[in-house]
Amino acid sequence: MTDTLIKVDLNQPAPENEQIHNRWHPDIPMACWVKPGDDFILETYDWTGGAIKNDDDASDVRDVDLSTVHYLSGPVGVQGAEPGDLLVVELLDIGAKQDSLWGFNGFFSKNNGGGFLTDYFPDAQKSIWDFEGMFTKSRHIPGVRFAGLIHPGLIGCLPDPKLLSAWNEREQALIDTNPTRVPPLANPPFAATAHAGKASGTLRDKIAAEGARTVPPREHGGNCDIKDLSRGSKIFFPVYVDGAGLSVGDLHFSQGDGEITFCGAIEMAGWVHMKVEVIKGGMAKYGIKNPIFKPSPIVPTYNNYLIFEGISVDDNGKQAYLDVNLAYQQACLNAIEYLKKFGYSGAQGYSLLGSAPVQGHISGVVDIPNACATLWLPTDIFEFDINPSAAGPTRFLDGSINMPIAYDK
Amino acid sequence: MTDTLIKVDLNQPAPENEQIHNRWHPDIPMACWVKPGDDFILETYDWTGGAIKNDDDASDVRDVDLSTVHYLSGPVGVQGAEPGDLLVVELLDIGAKQDSLWGFNGFFSKNNGGGFLTDYFPDAQKSIWDFEGMFTKSRHIPGVRFAGLIHPGLIGCLPDPKLLSAWNEREQALIDTNPTRVPPLANPPFAATAHAGKASGTLRDKIAAEGARTVPPREHGGNCDIKDLSRGSKIFFPVYVDGAGLSVGDLHFSQGDGEITFCGAIEMAGWVHMKVEVIKGGMAKYGIKNPIFKPSPIVPTYNNYLIFEGISVDDNGKQAYLDVNLAYQQACLNAIEYLKKFGYSGAQGYSLLGSAPVQGHISGVVDIPNACATLWLPTDIFEFDINPSAAGPTRFLDGSINMPIAYDK
Amino acid sequence: MTDTLIKVDLNQPAPENEQIHNRWHPDIPMACWVKPGDDFILETYDWTGGAIKNDDDASDVRDVDLSTVHYLSGPVGVQGAEPGDLLVVELLDIGAKQDSLWGFNGFFSKNNGGGFLTDYFPDAQKSIWDFEGMFTKSRHIPGVRFAGLIHPGLIGCLPDPKLLSAWNEREQALIDTNPTRVPPLANPPFAATAHAGKASGTLRDKIAAEGARTVPPREHGGNCDIKDLSRGSKIFFPVYVDGAGLSVGDLHFSQGDGEITFCGAIEMAGWVHMKVEVIKGGMAKYGIKNPIFKPSPIVPTYNNYLIFEGISVDDNGKQAYLDVNLAYQQACLNAIEYLKKFGYSGAQGYSLLGSAPVQGHISGVVDIPNACATLWLPTDIFEFDINPSAAGPTRFLDGSINMPIAYDK
Amino acid sequence: MTDTLIKVDLNQPAPENEQIHNRWHPDIPMACWVKPGDDFILETYDWTGGAIKNDDDASDVRDVDLSTVHYLSGPVGVQGAEPGDLLVVELLDIGAKQDSLWGFNGFFSKNNGGGFLTDYFPDAQKSIWDFEGMFTKSRHIPGVRFAGLIHPGLIGCLPDPKLLSAWNEREQALIDTNPTRVPPLANPPFAATAHAGKASGTLRDKIAAEGARTVPPREHGGNCDIKDLSRGSKIFFPVYVDGAGLSVGDLHFSQGDGEITFCGAIEMAGWVHMKVEVIKGGMAKYGIKNPIFKPSPIVPTYNNYLIFEGISVDDNGKQAYLDVNLAYQQACLNAIEYLKKFGYSGAQGYSLLGSAPVQGHISGVVDIPNACATLWLPTDIFEFDINPSAAGPTRFLDGSINMPIAYDK
């Protein structure tokens, strides 16, 4: 039986678990140690540490304190790993905790984090997804059911002091360009809600004061939210500190490219079974700055797609220059508009694009002035025929079911 | 035998062929007419009309006149198609012209169009690709060979006057923000090199004066450069004018997501066998603004990938806000750096990313302040093992072969 | 948390567990009951009930008592299911028991069951496979590692008395054509080792006397050993008795088409999470005699194959008439011969073909007098390059490791 | 432009074309010569040399003279190829002749060749398939349309005298076991209709007298009818004579595993673009008896299947011993019965199973006494939903269209 090196009791508050942390800092003490070649299991909280409930009330999404996230399991020290090495992590398997066979998707209030389409969906909403073995469906979004492309939204190694400084400095410089923006441009260190694992006293205070927030992906990987980093994949991480310090969390049962809904994919508490190896000096050998990875040989196959194009012109007809973000936003809006013709609400469509194994491709990025992005909607996840035909669409949903909403107070 | 409605003689200059045009305008006369249900073949020039030669000299890429592109075959009038309809186009097959079994890829000089990585590769370079049936390889980039994901870079219907005006106005407004930028932000109508098909006299002059340039993708589709719009796919185009006016060109033997090299994919002259149907009133029925499409059931399968991450921090460590373009640029640069370890030059790596069936995914777009993009490099296109290992990379190439370069005069 | 309706303690002998049985008979009492729409978990023994050990001694394979197999979990009664219905079973997930993360493959002695190539490998041998999350590898067959295509070798519903009689009669008629054959043509009921679940006394004796053996697949499904009946698939079973009486067992971590090694695939103890529905009168509605099924959307993807042909001419050059069995046997032998060139022993090659996700296709079956069968060997399961090249094969294995063998006493 | 080394004029009788032959014999003169590394095109007749017409009358299928088939293009001599080498043939592309964009499928009369289900469909019938680029559909079998998995049914090298003798001897020995069987067990040499290419006079007579018939697949490959030997695949053929002598013909636009209808797949006239290389001494290096091959990276993807099981018990309830042929026959009949529920005639179902990209798997071959075979029917080739549901099947076809039939005279 494989050893579970980090255990999570969902009834215990995440900040009280000493093998959990929510900031990036080189001084966070290792939660445990392993050797190259070892395989082991880490349990994880959901990214919010249990703030979102399996109910029909979105006020928890509205009121979430984003300074507390993400609750990560680790850091795991790997004997012999040194700065400049590559830590090879194979995700042998990932699953939900047996006492928590559900997940949540939602979008934050525009005043508290927002999401990719926050200008169109400014209020907090959520959908709950039940897991049936390898499949999921939602009581808030009828007519879809699909297999999970299970993955950690967040995984990476501890930064060294130099890298940490670079992060904090460049992000503060960005914040300084518009410090009052809502939502903010970035989040600086914030001591009050920092959880530094086993650290206590002045060490804890130092980590809390300096520790980088966990939301952005960075050179070490971190919160990449790459749906294809799924169980069965193999990742090559840069190592910056002795022992590497691998942490993981923010498990997703499924997600669409972009994680456009931000809160988030289909978020869940669970466990990761992984194996580690080390490539000595691998960063220089392969010219590695950011992690690279090999995808899994075992992922859900949904090969029938309906593909939506978007270009970098906004809703007011204003022309942007090769802006892939805008192009993808337009592709998303085009897909939502299409889904409405079959009876979905806009919010349901938006949530679905954030949850299902949707692909987002950078299709054209040089044809001035318009970028072109495409959103690939898998048609086999629907329990009815979503394809266009000469007869026109049939409304399969009567609108009686919608996603819970919680307006700002 | 299927009728070839538009023929192309590669020895005849494209501007002399009356079934070819290089601007978008509602008044361009139909080159031919078909009925719904018809299938037919259109031959095409390469996008430059033959400006680039199958040789080892990149000066043709350096000196290309971008005001002349793209040379399109059409417009094809479809009887009964009216504004508001959807024109359903099935790409039954696509191929190279038998007397031109090769294609080109390259990047323009930064002073004449540039490319996605023009700051890193500012000079004109090209690679020539030979076709062997369904496969291609290049004498300028050894060690790779792959099956073509053949597709038209450009396909769409004629705009109506209102849409045309909107295009010209919004693009001019963008140009006006920085009219002297090199490369330019967008290209306004340019009469001197306009080719309006069968139009002559004042009609030709009107089209030349007003006709939108063909480089950007727009609401009608156009130059989307979507590699997955491949033979076997079915596209649903908005119709704006009576008869629809479908044009096609810019055939690619293969391309990576983004067409990052701009000049371009693996560009070729060829033919398209297509079939058309009409969905009456389809734009309103399905809420269509941009084209949607179903991908082909028959595409090359390269399922083993090595995936590179990029985040929206530039080479100087400057932090951008959720900028997918920058994140994808960084992912591309990371991949090129990796390829260098196996012996490729930077230019060869860049050209390869623009030519091979590389995927570009918008992986994370909400984790402030960093967007995350991933570049998926198929490993089976290489004739050697490109995967990372504990032993480190082997240099398979000795650097004796490189891509032709032509410095600015 | 999903209910586990049948529990298995691997330390308890299978014949003592009242929710287990090893014969097919309409009178076996239901082990438990569920309703249409329910999902639930059944734990299972390995098919031999623990007779094969995780060690390096093949005497257990040699000495196995085949009259005791297969130990099945069930029957599960489904409320409302009646003869003529279809029982729809969705395999929501399948896994190994956490205290038994390994499996076995082997071939029986020719004198005790044999296997598909028993004339070439007449002695008992085995290989042990360790599970690492979704992957497996064997200390007895170096150089391969692959993801599991996990599935039950055996699943089906109870027969009614008429069907049971037909089975016993037709199989006895076959036996009677050559009653002393080694291995036998079929196995008749055998009371001594019958396990009838909860039944006792005269009922148990009746079941033991009449109960059909579990080895062959039959109209109800049963021991089909279809590797693609994997987790995520949905099966439509004929119902013959009130309550259907669904039983399952003989879990495989992986198997090649044909299960040519007989003992067997990669055999394991584990659990099945399933969900049941009923289609009333479905047998007549769809003309169903044998089960039909939809494969899973989530299976390991090994798309690179090396394919071996075989024709129906035996090793002595004798011509058979359109004999697919012989053709597949020849294809297997051809593959084994090829594998030997890379250093594998014949037994290792044989075991690998029975264990890995090998495909066996009926390629041509009308071209008199030769059938043609093909064996598809996935090349990505090997840790080295198994493809042919002008340079010839490299011996990656030195022969120091082989599979345990136990000669007949 | 690639050289076309063998040209076929469909208006010229195949026996008059000196680069065509219809027997296997070492003395057939090479039709042309190439060098290793060359790529070239060979045109081909359909396998019957034009005997079957694009009309609605099946009498041509009934009356076909099977002693005339197959008309093959070649042999192509490869300089330097010697006995014991492997000839590596890459199928760069394959297509239909532009003046013959259609194909035929059918089953022979039981009295003239029959087919896999000839006891159920004893009369000659045919269906005609029209090609639309990469797709095909039939006016005789409504409701299906699919992309072609184009391949040669027959390809291989000339035998040497020893191998030829072995073929003729073993096949005659089989015939001798039941010389009057209808259909026959095998076909011996038959001089009257032999076509020996360029050979004339006594050489021609020798070849005609001794030449092996082309119907069966044999050690050299030959008429394997492997649907996956499609364009893009790479085949490694044993070489028996100096120059190898590669011949090809019997092109199929599409075929199901087994080619169960015998007449045949979707048969067509066309062309093959191929490239040859030689592996010196490759037969011994790799232990090759029959050809091996690598499948194409570019094949139609139909991943949604409905799978039918069959076991080796015949319609009368008689038990056979591990008979895969019978099991596959039963799986085919099960599928046909299912298709009837949607309105197809039995003949249409049978023809569809022979024409569409159906898979036939050897699923279980050791579970005495029943073999289990599975037939994989791709559901996306249907224009309506063919899946089972609680509502039962809908009859999409009204039976007004059926396949032409020609009863024996």
Automatic annotation (TrEMBL), chains A, B, C, D:
Keywords, ordered alphabetically: Hydrolase
Domain of life: Bacteria
EC class: hydrolase
Gene3D superfamilies noted in UniProt: Acetamidase/Formamidase-like domains
MF (Gene Ontology): formamidase activity
Pfam families assigned: FmdA_AmdA
Enzyme Commission code: 3.5.1.49
Protein name: Formamidase
